[in-house]
User: Fold these one by one.
Assistant:
Number 1:
Amino acid sequence: MNGVHDMGGMQGLGDLAPEAGGPVFHHPWEARVHALTIASPTRGNIDVGRHQRELIPGPEYLAMSYYEKWFRSLSKLLLQGGFVTPDELASGRPAAGSPKGEPRLPAGAVEAAMARPGSYIREVAAPPAFQPGDAVRCRNLHPRGHTRLPRYVRGHVGEILAWRGAHVFPDSHARGEGEDPRHLYTVRFTARELWGEAGGPRDSIHLDLWEPYLERA
Amino acid sequence: MTHDDSDHHHEHDHEHGQHPPSDMELRVKALEFLLVEKGLVDPAALDAIVDHFEHKVGPRNGARVVARAWFDPAYRARLMEDATAAIAELGYVGGQGEHMMAVENTAGAHNMVVCTLCSCYPWPVLGLPPVWYKSAPYRSRAVIDPRGVLADFGVTLPDEIEVRVWDSTAELRYLVIPERPAGTEALSEDQLAALVTRDGMIGTARL
């Protein structure tokens, strides 16, 4: 979706506020939101989680802090998954007679879960359509759902730098249509191709893009 | 925060209404209380997760990777060939580090990492991202004006140095390997690691 989350290349979004060190969490509640999101029974599909945050209406998205967005999304996912009811969320109390669940992530399993070497690479039968060095154009796609094809590269030509194997395809995965693995490539764009004369003549921008986003240029 | 604590604040809000609903601390406590009461979340697991992100991951891990790469040419070669495996050699694995890529700064090229769409960041080696990395100004400008962003961090790059920006649009996570500072030939690996900064590994600083 063409949401405000897709920020690459926008101007006028305010000044940078570099912070050299800084605490990991700036308020204790941020740490709890982070931990709740990881321990939540809704955890498991990273693309659904990302899309939920993208669905926050743009004006609110821009006004919210990072962990406010996480909190909003977690609450929505808990409702959608049927883990809590709107009344429970409003009151903060379990409904009378509501069944007692089992934590998806008990304390004893946290250390192993944090150190689990996962992978998004899957086997597919089809060979990759592109090879390193190929010129590709990003398709002019404007899906209403989740996508990882930013607006700022659509229609632009880049060069395949590397093939990364077939990875879980977020556009399908976020819709609950399974992992639908597709070939993934690192694509190099010159800054001049993306930004015209505003781009540095030697500079480049690299994105990791799935095959359905690309066509031969 | 203990369970009883949540309970207390919940009652307080419910009976006296002194906290506005925008009070994030209260709302988060209420949600945690609800999920714990329903048996969906183990409060000790939350403590363990917070401890993990506050104490077990962070830029010190990435600094060890960089120092090893500076110190040991064979390790550097493995890191550039298969960063995920080379980083796992040092024990750094887990979520948001499944597919690691090391990108090396040289005399002629400077690398900088961003996630324009959200906040992707290599948790096992850098921990959680700083606020500015997740902010709209950084996410929007890093790709269109990387030299301006670098200038905001006090870095002025000569025109002849090429800037390579890496937008983390998939599950590949990028770690910038800064150039080894001059005059560090006599330093030990531990001393080298102490020179490596978080921003150096994001690419918003030069060492």
Number 2:
Amino acid sequence: MALIKKETVRKRMGRRIAANSTAKGIFIAATMFALVVLAVLLYRIGSEGMEYLSLEFITNFASRMPERAGIWAALIGTLWVMAVTAPVSFILGVGTAIYLEEYAKKNAFTRFIQINISNLAGVPSIVFGLLGLTIFVRLLELQRSVLAGGLTMALLILPVIVVASQEALRTVPRDLREASYGMGATKWQTIRRIVFPAALPGILTGTILALSRAIGETAPLLVVGALAYVAFVPENLFSQFTVLPIQLYNWTSRPQEDFHMLAASGIIVLLIILLIMNSIAVYIRNKFHKRF
Amino acid sequence: MDGNRNNSSSIRQMIKDNKSKRSRSALTEKTMPKLFLACAIISILTTVGIVFTLLAETFTFFERVSIVEFVTNKHWFPFTGEEHADYGIIALVAGTLTVTAIAMAVAIPVGLAAAIYLSEYASAKTRKIIKPILEVLAGVPTIVYGFFALTFVTPLLKEFIPTLKIFNALSPGIVVGIMIIPMIASLSEDAMNAVPNSMREGALALGATKFEVAIKVVLPAALSGVIASFVLGISRAIGETMIVTIAGGSRPTSDINVTESIQTMTAYIVQVSQGDAGFGTTIYYSIYAVGMTLFLFTLIMNLLAQFISRRFREEY
């Protein structure tokens, strides 16, 4: 007498195999859902935004008439804000990373900084806006200026740059440092001439990705007080300004269909900028990245 | 003779140069760590700044509106004049949690399924194509998602639910969910990838199907990371601003109907920043009280996620 009933086993196996293939189908469908959404989103924006997309759209100021409206002020405003954000966040972020990776002792204070940075990364961007409004706009009396907006953004992306730079510094192997010390170099010489150059591609990739996040951010600058309707470009760091996402928000929140199409055109420009920045980041990563 | 003297004097010169160089380099050697420490301290100051500004302005707010009213009143009508204004955070919290619940109902099943597919079923080649696409989805600015919610998802949903208002909770909820899918998918996939292959092979050798391996072996082993990714997703949904501002409307209410307009905490802060509530008015201080509540919600979620992934991690 057989201990195993072949009938039952076969039936059960059939069910299990069927469950496996159904589940696989569901998992694939879920993954495809995400891809389809992206495709639909891009298609919708492409088909709505082509109408007004032209050279004048880029070089014109905002206007109440959709056919004359453009994004020049917003585009230049974004550049101004990034001109503040990029150097400030790069210097502070890389400095913090070098301190944590190269100098800091493994003690409670270092752990505290590390935990603090990972928690900062989870703070909603609009809360950074409130911080910027209180500290930069009111306390330091920078008013609703490019400088106040740029500094707020720098603090927002600081944790991202710190974490990316730390990872880049960590990939530099001990041998390189020890060889440098062995040649008689001091710690700072080793960091400046050996460790930092070796980690630079990783640091730059992380910084560019963080900046591309800042370019797409709207909420903190709305709170800090970027203007919604601007017909001039900033003249200096203390000028009032608008940025691309805020211009898009302004158009999107109007009821008329034409302004939605303008918003779609602006989104195309924004996405192209982000695409270029991401391509540069990927290029740097692939071209200069060394595996030690 | 002369040459020798020249040599020795130039050597002396070299030694002198070297010494001054050394002292200079010793100085840099000492100052650089301090400079870097100063950079690191800026990040602490940022946290201190956030907590301090939120607390200080929130206290000013509570001098004008009692904290009891803030926590228990079910209405939020700040724009009806100082006398009749209602400041009950429940209405805004209800809006926020509604959107978050809808978002998680979309993001958790889809994100987890995508993670299981990528880590257990997909070939290395498929993974190499799909992961960058998910990264693109994660990199799309929220203003673009907001536009998508208002001009595409809402009209689409209206086909099925004719009573749907232009501004409603459902459409931004779904779109916030879509925005979070890549985050949950990639964090959960990381957690599942950390499960050693020997465990999968053991189960497969016993005759388990891939589905059984995924559900009964890999998922339980990676559970702490997976749950942590859900909690981080919730935190992200609570703090999301532009999508809900654009597509959710500005009608704070605690009787939730997903087809009607709502207002979230974040959307209220934007609404006030956009208007001309002057510095020093109660409305001005109210955004800090709302910001404080928002900050506490997300902080608790982030700490919870860290706790879960540390406390319940299975080490292999």
Number 3:
Amino acid sequence: MKSITKTFPGVRALDGVNFDLRQGEIHALVALVGENGAGKSTLIKILAGVYPHPEYGGEILIDSLEKRFANVREAEQDGIAVIYQELSLVKELSVAENIFLGREPRRVGVINWETLYSRAQKLLSDLHLEIDPRTPLVNLGIGQQQLVEIAKALSQDARILVLDEPTAALTDAEVEILFGILNRLRSRGVAMIYISHKLDEVFRISDRITVLRDGRTIDTSAARETDESKVIAKMVGREVDQIFPEPHHDRGEVVFEVRNVIVEDPAVPGKLFVDRISFAARKGEVLGIAGLMGSGRTELLMAIFGAHPGRKSAEIYVDGRLVQIKQPADAIRQGIGFVTEDRKRYGLILDQTILRNMTLAGLRKLSGRFVTNEDAEAAAGERAAGDLRIKAASVFTIAGTLSGGNQQKVVLAKWLLTNPRVLFLDEPTRGIDVGAKQEIYAQINQLAEEGLTIILVSSELPEVLGLADRVIVLHEGRITGEFTRNEATPEAVMSCATGRERQAA
Amino acid sequence: MTETSRTGRFKLRTSALRAYTMLLALVVIWLFFQWATIDQYHPYGLFLGAVNFSKLLQQMAVTGVLAVGMLMVIVCGNIDLSVGAVVGLAGGIAALTQGWGLVPSLAAAIFVGLLIGAVQGALVAYVNIPAFIVTLGGLEAWRGVILRLTKGATIPVELPFFRSLGRELIRPRIGLGLAIVGIAAIVWTNIRRKRARQRHGLTALSVGAIAARIAVPSLVIVAFIFLMNQGGGVPIPVIFLLAVAIAGAFLTANTTFGRYLYAIGGNPDAARLSGINLKRYILVAFCLMGALAGIASILHTARVGSASPDAGTLMELDAIASCVIGGTSLMGGRGTVFGAVLGALILASLDNGMSLLNVENWAQYVVKGGVLVAAVGFDMFGRRKS
């Protein structure tokens, strides 16, 4: 792939990316995940024909011939198969039916089941997989389903196999099986692009490593000639932005503490999202939680807030007092607010007004226990909209029509109107424009100065480092490092985030 | 926020726009039937005359009461297909328990409805069975229970006062009294609202706006009472419907409960994370639906004069159709009590008007079905354009 560029309205997602792949190698693509991604998903979608030819710039060459895929089908015909994080299998069908979905061997329009199952059996045994092709997919674990997806890709004679975070949902044993298969495929001459931010895995499996950042190729080097520290340095770059005002938070006593939070994946018993995490935060402190996608950040906050079905244990102390939080209402009563990730899904009721959204969580306090007082609500809402500088015709504007930044401010206002003492912010600036980001940063600092305790989760490293007084780093559900503001360098934090424990200082 | 945005005025929301469109449609339907029923005895038409209009409203009372309950269930993202069977069962219970006296027998009907609502609501909210399935099961099962209890027989209503609930008119003087109370309430709430806005520092509404807010509903009330009194008075079932509609409108628009119902239907995840106990409010919505089905069963049994085993059949669909015609989204989160009652009024007007014109039965069904689909189709078209 040469000089690939791709722009979305207002954003240049890819800017002249070069990427090449040789027969029978595993080429890892590592990147810092951040706002709008570093460009790896976009790059993959271009290769897979999701974004057809004229929508991107640059060229795709296969065996030195330029290819212009008009759709996914054409890319598949040229041997490109992508295994996305979200599996594209039909749970109700059997393994064999899934492998040959839409391409079932037929005789005069009737499916030839004998051929179907025997061919599926052969594919599976080629991969040394002991799965009965007649098993319904639902009976398999996520890991095995992923392996079925690989079998499906191979049944289409894939020459180029793209794996997007293939180990995110796998247990250690399943990772081993996957790596065994990838090694066999490599010796068969299949070329693979392996996308991951788990550096230990990347170094184990790949021949070459390319780092993407901000839509640009930063570097490609042979795995043997580089090491984790060098890759981390390239992932984070040297530019910790100057955009963050130096905060002066008066840190008071510990007001919020959690001990022993354990969260299990409800879909995969035994797999822990969060593995015995404890932390404490002081009044007026911004505690940053860094970690890559899948490290358990969101699950940790959800569990504390009483909103995660997989929570196994959690001791929560507010002002040193053990409190019971079984559901979000309990958390709100204890003065905890939660600006969730994915505002459209978890934060807003898109077809209601700004005002209705802003007053939802604190309704009883703002309005009345049973009979509502819309004028009191409107007064509080207009004040909050003014304070946060929400740009809209009025508080009666429908929330779904706002820009991302203003929507985020509405969610923030909703929680501020509950009068919280502890505020969780999960990816508070994802997908919003730079100006709104600045305003939210300023707001975070101001709130901390007013004495609010803020727990900030972000996958944008500069954001965490710029705002937090203290940073804890998660990797695979455990704390791998803790830093004060002065100690926290991008390299050190990223190193912990990719799985290296921090040595005791 | 700019200064101009602080006037407190707001644009018509889609649901409100839909209600006004439907109001217009209702007027067109009424004028059409009025024109079509002109003959030598009725030079100005028969349809909107006191006698016929009073009959029309009596006919819509049962559907209207059910539509108010259905609205609450649909707004929180559910559905209740069992209400027709519940009307049949609760009506049967009321007829069977007449020996206990009037009040106990009516209370029994309402209690049975409430109990069924509680059972179905609990299965939906706490056992996570989809409402469609639970209430489809209810539709079958409660009809079976009726057959067991009545042994397939039709039970006549014998208590005279019970019968009168479905047919009698209240005295014109009482109607007038109610009208005065209603107008006084409208004036009072508007004055209170004006003071409250001042207290919260919001821009006051202009005198003209307040006058309009008082005058328009007052005129409607006065016109309604005069028309009804011309025919002898307001029918009792219509009083029931008005009471239920006012209570339902207040509950959905002016209480935290109502606000939570819309939030749950609009985005259940966001509602849950905002500390709303989804299960509890869904259960309450089903309980209210059940109790209202009990009230509807009393009106229906009283009007018919007997409880038959197949009473209430297909009423659930009329109630759902009323909500949908009135702008309720079956996906939840959108709809008003006003719209649902308006929808019931449109359906009843079509029924009544076509009967007056001796439209054949088959054609009546086709027209009603067409209106339902057209109302939603129109809405979709309007939304896509905006």
